[in-house]
Amino acid sequence: MSGILKDNSFQLSIILTLSFLGVGFTLLHFGFAAYGWAPFIFLPIVLGLSLRALPGSVHLTLLFLLLQCNSPAPKAGGPVDISPQTDAIPVAKGWARNSINAVIFRRNALVTHRDTQYIAFYDSTSHVVLAKRQLEDSTWQIRQTRYRGNTADAHNSISIMVDGKGYLHMAWDHHGDPLRYCRSVRPGALEMSEEMSMTGIREDDVTYPEFYRFSDDDLLFVYRDGASGRGDIMMNYYNTQNQKWSSLQNGFISGERERNAYWQIALDDRDNIHLSWVWRESGDVASNHDLAYAVSSDRGRSWRKSTGEVYELPITAATAEYAMHIPQGSELINQTSMCTDAAGRPYIASYWRPAGTDVPQYQLVYHDGTDWQHTQLSHRSTPFSLSGGGTKRIPISRPKVLIDNRDGSKILHLLFRDAERGSRVSLATCTNLEKGNCTIRDLTLSSVAMWEPTYDTELWKNRKLLHIFLQKVEQGDGETQRPLAPQMVSVLEVEGF
Questions:
Q1: Could you tell me whether strands 466-470 and 487-494 are parallel, antiparallel, or unpaired per DSSP bridges?
Q2: What is the pLDDT of residue 495?
Q3: How far apart are CA 462 and CA 346, in angstroms?
Q4: pLDDT tens digits along 441-493
Q5: What domains can be seen in the chain, in order of their start residue?
Q6: 399 phi-psi bin (left φ>0, alpha ψ -120 to 50, beta other)
Q7: Residue 90 CB: number of other CB atoms within 10 A?
């Protein structure tokens, strides 16, 4: 053994190996190489030992390294493999070391106005990138804006919407931060204005900015004022004709500084605003509980229960209508999705662990016109537990729910990701909710890691075309990152609707 250690060839092999290790781990740490390279950098020393430090070992080691460097590398940042029933329209590579580009509460990541589709994401330098294309064209006009965000925190995502005159609105980089908002300098432009205020009312502690568009192309802007466990829901209204925002609701759902509501919203065909939420008692996700509901028929000015009873504002935990009672500690997730059918009846998708079991399941709570109903949509077998604060690394995504009412039918679709299915983009289609009959197809053939679903809401609403924001992303637990090279951002066009 002492002879081997004194051998000059072996010593040189050690130096080369340590140098290669240092460079390799540096590349991994900063996201310039994928983990697929990691096993190779350990092999030179194994080779040196196996050859017992013969005089030619250093030459063989160098030859081995040369072959590795010239062999095909893993496709870091390449497109996700998709199924034959879909088409992926690539845009550009974006930040992927956490899920900031692919969190479910982006409203929207992708939006269509007339025949122009817009998309937004952070690139590898944390700049906001905007792009647009004509729907029949696969070529994007891409603009890296001057604006940047704190990409270390997956909460700080980008939300966009287009108003009736064609102006692009954008809010980004919020997790208890002052409002960051701007709009395009002219209709259809990717050049954005300076940052501006909306109303000046409670804009210093903003989280979860979301845009919604009414049938006349006026806009609704919703966000949380305050921190997790003690925040209020805020609403602003944008008049497209005079191009001005006004304060619509100032903490109309109040946690009374003891809890906060995590919401999801759907606008029906009559512009009624349907809103559901879970309460959270602290910053710990395990304190999520119950599923509450309210609806507005006058664009958010007044609110009522499903029974028609008018709420006295603000709505609190004591006065809220509950679509379903779910206790704390049930692995109930927050911020999922909801939609409505042609009759304006709400459907709320989420996941939680049924009582007496240890496996969270996808669940649907809906109103049949008489009362609230509940059905389980999945039959998962892998347990997991939710607890703690920050963005979590969870083996399933939060679901997006859509309903297709064409031809008088009622077909429900659930868009999700599940590690049990290889962490692919999956779509469940349910034709009989009472019986829970659902068929599932995978829209990608390879993993999208920690992606969560967002889709072009306006294109689905107006044309029943399903276009999904697609990017493979990572996510560490509690706002940590994982090394992953920038990955391709694409629009996944789903056929068969």
A1: antiparallel
A2: 86
A3: 19
A4: 999 999 999 999 999 999 999 999 999 999 999 998 877 888 899 999 999 99
A5: 2-70 (no CATH), 86-494 (2.130.10)
A6: beta
A7: 14
